[in-house]
Design goal:
By secondary structure, the chain is mostly helical. The protein has a domain at 14-44. 41% of the residues lie in helices and 0% in strands. The protein has 2 helices and no strands. It has helices at residues 16-22, 30-43. The longest helix has 14 residues, at 30-43. The protein is flat and about 40 Å long. The termini are far apart. 0% of the residues are buried.
Length: 51
């Protein structure tokens, strides 16, 4: 199935303006961050179940 016409098929973030303006830089890379996020959700299985 293709992407419907007019839809965005890819997105990415470029934090270079924030880094240049404030000196901020991420402390965790994408791969590690995704792993940490998955670990958290696995440890908190009811986190998405709502109130």
């Amino acid at each position: 199935v293709g992407v419907p016409e007019g839809e965005i098929d890819r997105q990415w973030v470029d934090s270079s303006r924030l880094r240049d303006a404030t000196g901020w830089a991420p402390r965790v890379g994408l791969e590690e961050g995704l792993g940490l996020t998955l670990d958290w959700y696995r440890a908190h299985p009811t986190a998405l179940s709502g109130p």
